[in-house]
Write a structure and sequence with these properties.
Elements lengths: L1 E3 L9 E2 L5 E6 L2 E6 L5 E6 L5 E6 L12 E6 L3 E6 L4 E7 L4 E5 L18 E7 L12 E7 L4 E11 L6 E2 L5 E6 L2 E6 L11 E6 L4 E6 L5 E6 L3 E6 L35 E6 L5 E6 L5 E6 L4 E5 L5 E4 L6 E6 L5 E6 L3 E6 L4 E7 L18 E4 L4 E5 L4 E6 L4 E7 L13 E8 L5 E8 L8 E8 L8 E7 L1 E4 L2 E6 L5 E6 L4 E6 L15 E7 L6 E6 L6 E5 L2 E6 L4 E6 L6 E6 L5 E6 L5 E6 L4 E6 L3 E6 L5 E7 H4 L13 E9 L7 E6 L5 E6 L8 H7 L2 E6 L5 E4 L4 H6 L17 H6 L39 H12 L9
Antiparallel strand pairs: 1-57, 2-3, 3-4, 4-5, 6-7, 7-8, 8-9, 10-11, 11-12, 12-13, 14-15, 15-16, 16-17, 18-19, 19-20, 20-21, 22-23, 23-24, 24-25, 26-27, 27-28, 28-29, 30-31, 31-32, 32-33, 34-35, 35-36, 36-37, 39-40, 40-41, 41-42, 43-44, 44-45, 45-46, 47-48, 48-49, 49-50, 51-52, 52-53, 53-54, ...
């Protein structure tokens, strides 16, 4: 099983003592990257929930830099101690409360005197106080002290209470702690010898706007804080009246009167407060340099600002390309790291701030206007190479390797410089890869301004290498007049593509006269419209090619039409679905076609291409469909909120589960396997060919050639596994039950007169899975839907027709 697509920027990363490795919080684990290559070299696995903090134990002597120990905290309620060189877990502290933030001052406090008696280690954590949740007078989250040596929380030691979790910020020497609470800033002084009974001295600083980030000066009593409006406040001499200095006396500069404290609000304990303002939006990042001479700040505009602390002068590192979140210094003063909102971590050289390497995670989802009325096509898979193409917020497409869990390349669909206050004017609506991964097609919509300027654009891209470097081949403006594009599909064996539109037509596009993909094409060869088709002027809502490319299926709203793509001839029409069809897929080597419909009565239906009729169907809201290329299996991602599915009430670990993956053999209505999943809305499915090594034996190669199954959720986290292996059994933890009533099993319409064309489905009594059908309120409307030359005389139809108008009464057994 392969898991990936994790968020690398949810928490600040941390460098190892020798600066050769970077530890990154990545979902339920900690990923260890090499700073030389930018590749992942290890992983700390064991937490059952999101890891929120990682702290490397600092080296006390130059010779101890080779030691690789760290602490981690997680929402699973545990704090763990690791040796990340092996890697292995050494010990675990279970506090039974979700930990949102953690600092350990004793690791960095150099004033602790060495003695023969072992000094206990304490951590300060922000936890969710579940026992206080019902008391609205108190906060739901608390800052508490945890005794790591004795593996327990310190009773009664609650430093602060908040309505939401906050990040605990610590000074570089471990002497000061800070937590922001809206417009207030609480600061504690940690004694050099901490104990469970020690009461920490506290001061509170006030501001007029909501605070977003804070940072302590490494050597002086200077505190920087950023707010939601882009301002940076610099408090100097804070706490000199309350906190004693290390040598027992207070700073002489604190003897001035309150009237001489410029910028300080009320009775706040600070000498002065100055304001710097350059950022147009909220400040996300603040960090002092190791010598304290500079302050670095960043925010939504994607520019790193370097301030001189003494003078306030500034210089910039522009065009990073994404909002900045975290800045981390390494023990090696020659380079640092910058974490960005696009799930990238840049390693930069100091002081030139040149980007040396980038750790590229999968692009995170973003909010955008909903343009398409059908199933989202913002995710496309390369089944052979194990790549996925995702649209990004910067009007680009990212090519991401599912097996290597790293970014391969990016294709800039629309040129754009990052601006913090840009309104969305372009929406990339579709991203589709060809079967061999050599071609890419994208569609974009330029939103109208004041009712003018609406433009739909179709772009074809080509690539000659497997590195995912695509070049633009053809741009087609308004490919379907002013109508939006509903679907794009590539021919499996030729350089041919089809785009369908809500305007009532579909177009067949060819390149180099539709030459086979294996043949070389000219880099400057363009795409032209080969043919145009329509059916009764109905909106064309979905399209799919058969595995051999000989048949093109296009959904004309509720009707499935079958076409010869070469001659553009209508071959056949399959009976109507209940609601408009949003997705079509041919099932591998079978003679079945799968459709998904959305609306008030959503439907998952399997159609027979031999009989041109429905085989079976379910009333389910399907979010995604994927078919196996080498078998008769297909999978459907179902949303529970619309499917009528229920859970086993004894299951307690799936409160947030909102979807199911159903694996079917197309000939049977009973699912082969069922998996419960989270964040199913906006998810995607695919069957991926397993990557085999050339050095393996022939038998091993055959075994490795199996097809793997990929599921990607709405947050772009994915899992890759063998659907028929033991790993799949571990995932199948929740059983779904249908809620359809027994009356729904009767025949309706045309089938009520002439019977089923296929063998009847086994009785519901012999299987735990029910097979619901969909009776219409007026079944006689479909009696005459068959071909006219096959209809019997009216004398034979009159009796069944009249009988269908009357309600049947169930016989009562005496």
């Amino acid at each position: 099983m392969i898991r990936g697509g994790r968020n690398y920027v949810s928490s600040p990363p941390v460098f190892s003592n020798d600066s050769k490795r970077l530890l990154v919080c990545a979902g339920n684990s900690v990923a260890v990257f090499s700073t030389d290559t930018g590749l992942q070299v290890a992983s700390l696995d064991g937490h059952a929930a999101l890891v929120t903090a990682v702290i490397v134990v600092p080296a006390s002597t130059p010779g101890s830099k080779i030691l690789c120990f760290c602490w981690t905290a997680s929402l699973d309620g545990t704090i763990r101690y690791w040796d990340f060189a092996v890697p292995e877990m050494i010990r675990s502290v279970d506090i039974k409360l979700p930990v949102h933030s953690m600092v350990i001052p004793s690791l960095f406090n150099h004033l602790v005197e060495k003695s023969e008696k072992a000094v206990k280690s304490f951590a300060y954590i922000c936890v969710e106080a579940k026992e206080e949740a019902e008391d609205r007078a108190k906060g739901l989250f608390q800052v508490r002290k945890c005794n790591l040596t004795d593996a327990r929380l310190v009773g009664g030691a609650v430093l602060a209470e908040m309505k939401k979790p906050e990040i605990i910020t610590m000074s570089s020497c471990g002497e000061l702690l800070g937590v922001r609470r809206k417009r207030k800033l609480d600061i504690w002084k940690v004694p050099s010898t901490d104990s469970g009974r020690t009461v920490l001295k506290k001061i509170t600083l006030h501001h007029t706007k909501a605070l977003t980030v804070i940072a302590f000066h490494p050597t002086e009593r200077i505190l920087a804080a950023g707010d939601a409006t882009g301002r940076i406040m610099i408090w100097r001499g804070f706490g000199n009246k309350t906190f004693a200095m290390a040598n027992g006396h207070v700073n002489g500069s604190s003897m001035i009167t309150d009237e001489e404290n410029p910028g300080v609000r009320g009775s706040d304990d600070a000498e002065s407060c100055t304001t710097w303002h350059w950022h147009p939006a909220q400040v996300n990042l603040l960090s002092f340099s190791s010598d304290g001479a500079y302050l670095l700040s960043g925010g939504k505009e994607g520019v790193l600002v370097v301030w001189q602390v003494d003078t306030g002068k500034k210089k910039f590192l522009p065009r990073i390309g994404s909002p900045l979140l975290h800045f981390t210094d390494s023990p090696d003063p020659s380079f640092s790291s910058i974490s960005c909102a696009d799930n990238q971590i840049h390693l930069v050289r100091r002081p030139s701030m040149e980007i040396l390497k980038s750790i590229s995670g999968i692009k995170l989802p973003y909010s955008h206007p909903e343009i398409s009325k059908g199933m989202s096509s913002g995710v496309s898979f390369d089944q052979n190479a194990g790549l996925v193409a995702l649209r990004t917020e910067s009007y680009a497409v990212q090519l991401y390797s599912l097996f290597d869990d790293r970014g391969i390349s990016e294709v800039q669909v629309y040129e754009r410089n990052h601006q913090p206050v840009d309104e969305v004017t372009i929406v990339v609506t579709s991203v589709v890869l060809s079967l061999d991964g050599s071609m890419l097609c994208t569609s974009e919509v330029r939103l109208p301004e004041d009712g003018l300027g609406h433009l739909v654009c179709l772009k074809f891209w080509f690539s000659k290498s497997k590195a995912g470097d695509f070049s633009l081949s053809t741009i087609v403006y308004e490919p379907h007049r002013d109508a939006g594009i509903s679907a794009i599909v590539f021919h499996p064996n030729r350089r041919m593509a089809v785009s369908s539109s809500f305007g009532g037509d579909f177009k067949i596009w060819t390149s180099n006269s539709g030459v086979p993909m294996k043949e070389e094409s000219q880099p400057n060869s363009g795409w032209i419209c080969h043919a145009v088709g329509s059916y009764k002027k109905k909106p064309m809502t979905a399209a799919a090619f058969s595995p051999d490319g000989s048949v093109l299926a296009v959904a004309a709203e509720t009707v499935i039409t079958l076409w010869d793509p070469d001659k553009n001839l209508l071959v056949a029409v399959i009976g109507e679905a209940i609601m408009p069809i949003v997705a079509l897929s041919f099932v591998g080597n079978s003679d079945h076609l799968v459709s998904a419909s959305w609306g008030s009565k959503p439907q998952l239906a399997v159609w027979s291409l031999l009989n041109l009729s429905t085989c079976w169907s379910y009333r389910l809201h399907v979010e995604a469909i994927a078919s196996s290329p080498d078998s008769s299996s297909f999978a459907a991602l179902v949303l529970l909120s619309d499917s009528g599915g229920v859970y086993d009430p004894n299951e307690k670990s799936h409160k947030t589960v909102d979807g199911l993956i159903l694996l079917f053999n197309s000939a049977e209505p009973n699912p082969v396997a069922v998996w419960s999943v989270k964040k199913a809305k906006g998810g995607a499915l695919a069957f991926i060919r397993n990557q085999s090594s050339d050095e393996e034996s022939s038998s091993d190669q055959q075994q490795a050639a199996q097809t793997l199954f990929a599921y990607m959720n709405a947050d772009h986290e994915y899992v890759l596994f063998d659907p028929h292996g033991t790993e799949a059994e571990e995932l199948s933890v929740t059983r779904w039950k249908s809620q359809s009533s027994p009356e729904e099993s009767g025949q309706v319409g045309y089938a009520s007169l002439y019977g089923e064309l296929l063998p009847p489905i086994p009785s519901r009594k012999h299987t735990p899975w029910s097979v619901p059908s969909f009776p219409t309120e007026r079944p006689w409307e479909t009696i005459f839907s068959g071909p006219s030359h096959n209809l019997p005389p009216l004398t034979l139809l009159c009796g069944p027709f009249l009988e269908a108008l009357f309600e049947k009464r169930t016989a009562v057994e005496e």
